[in-house]
Design a protein that fits this description.
Blueprint: H1 31-41, H2 45-64, H3 66-69, H4 74-83, H5 85-88, H6 96-101, E1 104-105, E2 118-119, H7 128-136, H8 147-178, H9 194-206, H10 237-240
Antiparallel strand pairs: 1-2
Length: 265
């Protein structure tokens, strides 16, 4: 398990003047751009282009509806904490993904009173366009930023970075496949959080890959786990012996002549 503080390092400003450089790139390019460049050199430029298009669409979707599109509920919990503190302090916020879907939340101070319930359905997060317009009107010489402005700025930055992690994972998977021997089956193991895994699966399914022939549509475990329940998994035979994954049905998809099945574990 991760530490309770999530390894947070306090900083006063984002290091916007620095980036991870792709090894050997001249002129220098970012690490993620380098991943796309490797695919293009390997003859898989169409995959790199599709990944770029997916990234742009995914970011725009999240900017247009931060509350609805953030399935983990972190943005909504942060918005309540910074902009509706009286509500945040009076409701159960322990499970953000549940909080995000609630129409009404019972009051902790008056748990049996319907009149003291809090209406969460009507609390919305501004769209990206609205947030950018609001922040553009901020004058740092006249006053300090408000809690609302700070949380909006953090969400705007995070939306681009969140999907950039997904883009990097997509490109890394593709690079792993094209770097293998031609026409040989390839298994790629991706270890990531649920939101990132969903994004990677969304992209590869859009490219024609699927889970045909796998029990339970290739899904193991649960979307959510009750507190205290063991999260140990019993792997099916095809994860004990990757040879059982192949041959993959023709309809599943292909990348540079190598066939693979999409798995969600």
């Amino acid at each position: 398990r991760r530490p309770d503080d999530w390894g947070v390092v306090p900083v006063r400003a984002a290091p916007v003047d620095r980036y991870l450089k792709a090894r050997g790139s001249d002129p220098p390019r970012t690490w993620v751009s380098g991943l796309a460049g490797h695919l293009e050199l390997a003859g898989a430029g169409a995959v790199a282009a599709a990944a770029r298009e997916w990234y742009s669409t995914a970011v725009q979707r999240l900017l247009c509806a931060p509350k609805r599109e953030d399935l983990e509920g972190d943005y909504f919990a942060a918005w309540l904490r910074e902009c509706h503190r009286e509500v945040y302090d009076d409701i159960d916020t322990s499970v953000p993904e549940v909080l995000r879907d609630l129409a009404w939340a019972p009051s902790r101070s008056h748990p049996r009173s319907p009149e003291h319930r809090h209406n969460l359905r009507d609390i919305c997060i501004p769209t990206g366009d609205a947030a950018f317009a609001e922040l553009a009107g901020f004058d740092p010489d006249s006053r300090t930023s408000s809690r609302r402005e700070r949380v909006l700025a953090k969400m705007l930055v995070d939306i681009f970075q969140l999907r950039l992690v997904d883009l990097a994972a997509i490109l890394a998977v593709a690079n792993a496949v094209v770097s293998g021997p031609p026409a040989e089956p390839v298994v790629v193991v991706l270890y990531a959080g649920g939101d990132h895994v969903r994004s990677v699966l969304e992209f590869w399914r859009s490219q024609g890959f699927g889970s045909e022939g796998l029990p339970g549509d290739g899904f193991l475990g649960k979307e959510s786990w009750p507190e205290g329940e063991s999260r140990a998994l019993s792997f099916p035979a095809y994860l004990h012996n990757f040879g059982r994954l192949f041959p993959v049905p023709e309809s599943t998809g292909h990348l540079s002549g190598k066939k693979e099945a999409v798995l969600c574990v």
